[in-house]
């Protein structure tokens, strides 16, 4: 075998060995490589003051990274940086790619999301009055006045287009009791309904003091006066009559009491051992919540007429003649008077 043949044969061996070594290196490297996902906080930079993004971009970007398993095991989200560059952005739609900074010994193979479709809007503020609506119903016979708020206005801050759509901002007042309401209530966007959990619309202050007067409904009614007479007159006297001036009065009372009112009693008028008329000015007894429509009608005059009991006059009767049946009471004989007394005899008989 000559020298050229030997060299050619050695070259083939060497090439085969090199190819085998490369394949083995690739296999070993593939076995040592791995992938891992890291959640990374998305940073925003470059947006000019007075502008705002609407909708808000996500706060986190998912990065899928490939690299040696030994390296990946020692990495964390803090070793990566995801940036949203907004330099020069003006109001209107905008598409922006997310930029990523990563360690040199690993490769970022995907970003979720890779780019964002955004809208740049102007940041505005608006001052609006506090509106209100009621939740629940009042008991029968009660009414509400107009509520007052402290403060009476709130300030909205957010994207201009969102602020334009807001028609009503206020509080929801729970009602159902009889007492006035004085409490702090949260302010929310009422019309149209907007889910503001993300705080895109700032409301300042977030709550207001609410004062809601609640009172009874009052009506008018005329009631008869019932005198209250106590005691008994002196022996031999009796009550002939009783009168009240005025006999009826107009009162103001809650609506819920109106159907129950029949009459009003006076303060007691004592006629113990009285031998003559008793005349007294006494107060009317008004139930709680009721009052006279005219303050002067809180008093009435009660007159109790006391008279002597009339004595019964004895009547003279004519005894019947022997053998005669006495006539019925109240009738006379042929010669008697109508009341049964004997009529004097006339001359000539």
From TrEMBL:
Organism for this UniProt entry: Heliobacterium chlorum
Designated name of the protein: YbbR-like protein
Low complexity: compositionally biased ranges: 313-324
Gene3D superfamilies in the cross-refs: 2.170.120.30, YbbR-like domain
One of the Pfam families matching this protein, by short name: YbbR
Annotated region (Disordered), positions in chain: 313-349
Domain of life the protein comes from: Bacteria
Coiled-coil ranges (or none): none
């Amino acid at each position: 075998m000559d020298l050229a043949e030997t060299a050619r044969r050695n070259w083939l061996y060497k090439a085969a060995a090199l190819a085998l070594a490369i394949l083995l290196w690739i296999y070993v490297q593939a076995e040592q490589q791995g992938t891992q996902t890291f959640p990374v906080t998305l940073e925003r930079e470059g947006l000019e003051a007075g502008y705002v993004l609407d909708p808000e971009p996500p706060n986190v970007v998912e990065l899928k990274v490939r690299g040696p398993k030994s390296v990946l095991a020692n990495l964390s989200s803090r070793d990566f940086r995801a940036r949203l560059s907004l330099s020069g952005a003006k109001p209107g739609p905008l598409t922006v790619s997310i930029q990523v900074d990563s360690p040199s010994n690993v490769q970022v193979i995907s970003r979720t999301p890779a780019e964002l479709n955004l809208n740049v809007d102007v940041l505005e503020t608006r001052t609006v009055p506090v509106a209100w609506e009621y939740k629940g119903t009042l008991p029968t016979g009660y009414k509400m006045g107009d509520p007052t708020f402290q403060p009476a206005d709130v300030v909205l801050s957010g994207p201009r287009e969102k602020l334009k759509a807001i028609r009503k901002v206020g509080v929801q007042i729970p009602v159902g009791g009889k007492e006035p309401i004085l409490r702090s209530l949260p302010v929310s966007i009422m019309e149209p309904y907007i889910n503001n959990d993300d705080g895109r619309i700032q409301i300042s202050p977030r709550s207001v003091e609410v004062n809601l007067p609640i009172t009874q409904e009052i009506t008018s009614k005329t009631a008869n006066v019932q005198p209250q007479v106590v005691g008994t007159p002196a022996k031999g006297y009796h009550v002939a009559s009783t009168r009240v001036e005025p006999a009826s009065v107009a009162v103001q009372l809650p609506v819920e009491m109106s159907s129950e009112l029949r009459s009003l009693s006076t303060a007691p008028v004592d006629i113990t051992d009285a031998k003559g008329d008793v005349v007294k000015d006494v107060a009317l007894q008004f139930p709680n919540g009721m009052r006279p429509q005219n303050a002067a009608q809180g008093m009435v005059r009660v007159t109790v007429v006391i008279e002597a009991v009339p004595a019964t006059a004895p009547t003279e009767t004519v005894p019947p003649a022997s053998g005669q049946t006495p006539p019925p009471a109240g009738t006379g004989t042929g010669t008697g008077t109508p009341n049964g007394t004997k009529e004097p005899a006339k001359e000539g008989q």
